[in-house]
Amino acid sequence: MRFIILLVVIGFIVIISDIFITGGILFPIGVAIILTGFTAYFIKNLILLSLFFSFYVILGYLILFIYNKKLKNAKLFEYKEGIVQVKLENNKYLVMFPTGFRGETIWEAYSDEDLKVGDKVKIKKIDGNVLIVKKKS
Question: Which GO terms describe its molecular function (predicted)?
Answer without folding.
Answer: peptidase activity
